[in-house]
Every structure is written in C-alpha cells, then in structure tokens.
Specification:
Blueprint: E1 8-11, H1 16-28, E2 32-35
Parallel strand pairs: 1-2
C-alpha cells in the first residue's frame, strides 16, 4: 500500500474470537478494521 493510504475492512461478524484473530493481523499491515459494534449495528 502507498504511504498515507489505508483500506477499511468491515467485519460483519459478532464473534469476538474471529475479530481478534483477523484484526490483529490486518492492522499490522495497515488496514483499519470496523466491526458491526463500531457502527452500532445490533444483530440480535
């Protein structure tokens, strides 16, 4: 990726283990992770 640019990725899951597993790897590579909770979307 070019310096100063990033990509946002929406994780459309409510499973905290999945979010933790993938988000840590992707943020290390410069991606911004957004979850349903971040967007205040309740799937219940």
């Amino acid at each position: 990726m070019k310096e100063g640019k990033y990509m946002k990725i929406l994780f459309a899951t409510t499973n905290p283990a999945k979010i933790k597993t993938y988000a840590s790897r992707l943020t290390e590579r410069g991606y911004e992770i957004v979850t349903l909770k971040d967007l205040k979307i309740d799937m219940d």
